[in-house]
Design goal:
- The chain has two domains: 1-54, no CATH class; 57-166, no CATH class.
- With 193 residues, it is mostly helical.
- The longest helix has 28 residues, at 70-97.
- The chain is built from eight helices and no strands.
- Helix 4 (70-97) packs antiparallel against helix 5 (108-117), helix 4 crosses helix 7 (136-163) and helix 6 (123-132) packs antiparallel against helix 7.
Amino acid sequence: MESATPQQRERVDSSALTLASVARESVAPLDRLETALHPWSAFVVIPIFALANAGVRVVDMDFVAAATSPVALGVGLGLLVGKIAGITLATWIAVVTGVGKLPKRTTWRDMIGLAALAGIGFTVSLFITELAFSTETLIDEAKIGIFIGSGLAGIVGYTFLRMAKTPAERIDEGRELLGIEQPAGTSGSHPTS
């Protein structure tokens, strides 16, 4: 393409734009609309809906006292520590007994991060809260524990997964360990982020 004339390059560019337009138009309008609205729905509407329907009363509430109550701490730690311990232990038992195995390129750090992300849970936790507690004060404290525990679970899970090495980084580390040189023409097998 370097030896092409400016007119040839312009024709190729025009053809590429036409092809892109045809490809876009080949997708049904409803699919395009759904794709455009998905981020707004998933990250704005649904969280607002969940928080609005959680029904935590914030009027005349001492938030610090409610957040540090035994109920809130128990629920929050249950979501964070309980999910990590339970899922990781169950996975470890399955791997040790031979019932299951970790997927390729999955480390135990990855499993801990994924288990932490499982602690993000509103729907069932809120439903169980309504069944488990009889007074409004305890229900509100449990809901605050759910929000705090879910938030912390998200942060811990993200941190564990973000700290994990990518497969390309593991390959580079293995090459270095074995003393294998980088293939010619590459300046690293993974993009820097």
